[in-house]
Amino acid sequence: MKTQRLDFAEFYRATKDECLFTVLVSVGDQDAAQDLVAEAFARAWASWRTVSRHPAPVAWVVRTALNANISRWRRRRREVPVPDPGTVADRPARDGEVGRSVDPWIMAALMRLPLRQRQVVALRLFLDLDTGRTATVLGIAPGTVQAHLGRAIAALREDLLPTRQQENPT
Amino acid sequence: MNDDELITVVREQRAKVPMDTPVEQIISRGRVVRARRRIPRLVAALAVVAGAALTVTTLAPADHQPGAWAVARRADGTISVTIRELADAAGLQRALRADGVPTSLTFPGAQNPACGQPQSMQGSPAWAVARQPDGTISVAISEMSDAAGLQRALRADGVPVSVTFSGQPGLSCPAQPAHGQPRDH
Fold first, then answer.
1. What is the pairing mode between strands B127-131 and B137-141?
2. d(CA A32, CA B22)
3. Do B26 and A107 make contact, defined as CB atoms within 8 angstroms?
4. A87 found inside a domain
5. Is the pLDDT of residue B79 over 50?
């Protein structure tokens, strides 16, 4: 039992931030994302014997959180509002974390992507899942993952590069 | 900035939104989740045990003698009854009723050495059939003979059965044959 706890604690410490950001990009609400990820990690702990043997435990957590978000949406029977990306970006950094607040331009550009593209970007870029695993998590074909990623990067480039070049005219 | 640099910049954002829920709180919640999961599993396990016990009780009653008889529903809807021994009349009656045949079955020869048979019943010395006011068909079989006659009598009463006597004749009742006149089936 103690070994199980240590393994889980290490897993949690190593992956919690990227899981949170992945879910945040999908659901668009930091408080909701935090609740969903916490619940997903709790379920992972409850089934740790199974989850720890999963080929990508972090994908299991994110999938569980996204499923929980769908269940939450169904319970409410209405669209989950997507907040202004600035509400994430404007949150103050914690003590000793100067310069660690999220870039509002990047967050806004991410939130402007269609949901599926956001999910692909989150799984491929933030969780570092390969194309096959991303396809499995989202229940789509690997080719579709690549297509979404290509379109998402093109949209981000178009959205961000002019702004950043204006910021840094070199 | 090329695509790789763009991806790097975007990736850097993931470390800037920290998940600050303590692991102890996650584990505490996990214990609640695990406890909730165990309740339905326990209920399901109890249901399986209860179902198994009920099945055993239903299919294998205490007085059932395996192999004494067999009941099967055929593709054409008729009920095939094979009697090898005049035993476990109650079990055979339950099996027939489960297949929609409203019978009241007795083996007088097996239960009563005197082989008594109700006066109201009609049939051969080996068996007798009577329809009761409540619609059930009373069948008394004293001897395993004349299966074809019994089958005709039952079908005449609207019971779509095929009757076969196999194996040893079993108990006979030569001392007191059935009362009444055989039906003209």
1. antiparallel
2. 17
3. no
4. no
5. yes
A77 and A1 in one domain? yes
Residues 6+ apart with CB under 8 A from A24: A30, A33, A88, B17
φ, ψ for residue B66, nearest 5 deg: -55, 135
Q: Are strands B161-165 and B79-83 parallel, antiparallel or unpaired?
A: parallel
The domain limits of chain B are 3-59, 69-165
This complex has an ipTM of: 0.73
Select the more confidently predicted residue: A52 or B184: A52
Question: Do the domain assignments include residue A26?
Answer: yes
Residue A137 distance to chain B (closest CA, Å): 19
Q: Which residues of chain A make contact with B33, given a CB cutoff of 8 A?
A: 42-43, 45-46
Range of the domain at A17: 1-81
**pLDDT, tens digit, 9 for 90 and up, residues A32-82:** 899 999 999 999 999 998 899 888 899 999 999 988 888 777 777 655 555
In the predicted model, what is the mean pLDDT of residues A124-153? 92
Which residues make Cβ contacts (< 8 Å) with residue B101, sequence separation at least 6?
B79, B137, B159, B161
Contacts of A42 in chain B (CB under 8 A): 26-27, 29-30, 32-33
pLDDT tens, position by position, B81-134: 888 888 888 888 888 888 888 888 888 765 444 444 444 455 567 888 888 888
Q: How far apart are CA A41 and CA A24, in angstroms?
A: 15
C-alpha B93/C-alpha A150 separation (Å) is 73
Whether residue A109 is found in the same domain as residue A74:
no
A136 to chain B, minimum CA–CA distance in Å? 22
Nearest-by-CA chain B residue for A9: B23
Q: Is A151 left (phi over 0), alpha (psi -120 to 50) or beta?
A: alpha
- Which neighbouring-strand residues pair with B164? B82
C-alpha angle with apex B139: B135 to B145, nearest 5 degrees? 150
- Residue A161 identity (one-letter amino acid): L
Residue B168, Cα to own-chain centre: how many angstroms?
26
